[in-house]
Specification:
By secondary structure, the chain is an all-alpha fold. It has a domain at about 30-95. About 60% of the residues lie in helices and about 0% in strands. It is built from four helices and no strands. The radius of gyration is 19 Å and the shape is elongated.
Length: about 110
């Protein structure tokens, strides 16, 4: 019997049950939830980095975005608030579209 000990999407228990399997779950407290979301963020980013096709990469980015939504709520913010901050930072510092790679900065 595989042991996972990880945060899963809300409908996973029902999907497991529909497959005729039994399982054990528990509900995390807020501190545990935040910690598990952070771990899940790294897991999903790693899966994105390992994606071999654009289609797979987009699937993994969707998972990353789902985690970002959950983390925003965990920190008491909406995704709209996070987006407002992203836009402000992009206006002040730019985005990443110009593909600029900083090699070095010399003090003169």
């Amino acid at each position: 019997m595989p042991v996972y000990n990880k945060l899963v999407r809300d409908r996973i228990p029902a999907i497991i049950e529909q497959a005729g399997k039994t399982f054990t779950t528990r509900i995390l407290n807020e501190e545990e939830y935040k910690k598990e979301l952070q771990k899940k963020a790294f897991e999903e980013l790693e899966e994105y980095v390992q994606a071999m096709t654009d289609e797979a990469a987009i699937e993994e980015l969707a998972d990353v975005l789902e985690i970002v939504h959950a983390l925003a709520a965990c920190h008491g913010a909406s995704i709209e608030q996070v987006e407002q901050i992203r836009v402000k930072k992009a206006e002040e510092r730019g985005g990443f579209r110009e593909k600029i790679f900083l090699v070095e900065v010399r003090d003169e």
